[in-house]
Here is the input.
Amino acid sequence: MSFPKRILFVCMGNICRSPMGEALLRHHAKEAGIGELRIDSAGIGAWHAGEPPDERMCKAAKRKGIVLKGQARQIRETDFEDFDLILCSDGDILKRVLGQGGDPDRTKLMLDYHPERGGQDVPDPYYGGKEGFNEVFDMLDETCLAIIDRLGKRPS
Here is the structure.
């Protein structure tokens, strides 16, 4: 079986962790010449719906040449059919997504694909300082590179 090609990242409000995962996977897929991926992100709640990604997350991404775009949105019922793989930022989000109808075989933690942190949560940097955003960037960058490896097309 091939690795899923329609991937949704989900966090709490869709302004920090999930848009970062989306942007990093999109960036690495482009570098690797993978055009057949569909990548998106969403939040469990609608608190930030319509807002851009958190400015602090944007700054952490910019330091490595990644641009965060988009507007926050809440996960929709149609996402469970539209995506082959739903990657949740932490165990609480995973439980919520599964409770809303996520398929346990297609709903995982983001770090399940990290080379060393499988099964762990991506910490929410929202209430912390700059270093938390940098740490989340690094975790998700390694995770997205590992996903590209699974697709068999990691850039050199």
Notes: Residues 130-150 form the longest helix (21 residues). The two ends are 25 Å apart (CA to CA). Helices lie at 17-31, 55-62, 79-82, 91-99, 130-150.
